[in-house]
């Protein structure tokens, strides 16, 4: 598959947007509203959902991987890289599978991606800690993913509808 300069530039802009949203999200203390450690709104996932629907799976996966790598590099937190990559990759696989189901909206795909992300992060915690006690936290994370995934899906649906007349690929 040959990538054009336009496609590369669009992926770079979307990666920068995802990094910016991730940084912005870190400024809001979500734990004041939802007192669970590690809970985030997932604003950067709006870009992932958008890219999946507008550009396809491979560019969306590249944007996601670049966001995870650069985000951990900029934050100076290499240990977060495993959590980001496992969570993001599982979220992408779930969203890719769900997006192929006829009749399932972007809301359902986004909620599935949020749940997949939390399961991937739980897998990273199991690997890192070597202890299954963290699995007791999973039901709470999955419950929160209903809200965060719906929020991400809502914003993604608005964005997709707003640019439905714009041709981004090819």
Automatic annotation (TrEMBL):
<feature type="transmembrane region" description="Helical">
    <location>
        <begin position="43"/>
        <end position="66"/>
    </location>
</feature>
<feature type="transmembrane region" description="Helical">
    <location>
        <begin position="137"/>
        <end position="160"/>
    </location>
</feature>
<feature type="transmembrane region" description="Helical">
    <location>
        <begin position="78"/>
        <end position="98"/>
    </location>
</feature>
<keyword id="KW-1133">Transmembrane helix</keyword>
<keyword id="KW-0472">Membrane</keyword>
<dbReference type="InterPro" id="IPR010898">
    <property type="entry name" value="Hpre_diP_synth_I"/>
</dbReference>
<keyword id="KW-0812">Transmembrane</keyword>
<protein>
    <submittedName>
        <fullName>Gx transporter family protein</fullName>
    </submittedName>
</protein>
<dbReference type="InterPro" id="IPR014535">
    <property type="entry name" value="Hpre_diP_synt_I"/>
</dbReference>
<dbReference type="Pfam" id="PF07456">
    <property type="entry name" value="Hpre_diP_synt_I"/>
</dbReference>
